[in-house]
Amino acid sequence: MIELTRDPFSFRVHNFLQEAEDIEKQFLDLVHNSTENPEAS
Hints:
The chain is mostly helical. Helices cover about 70% and strands about 0% of the residues. It has one helix spanning about 10-35. The radius of gyration is 16 Å and the shape is rod-shaped. The N and C termini lie far apart (about 45 Å).
């Protein structure tokens, strides 16, 4: 396994995947909230 701290590319990819995961969670929360109370917008 590649040591992330010594491989800048892997480190960037790892960060990107983490951010994508966070954005997906936020998006799903947003969708969930807007479907629960549509008049809130």
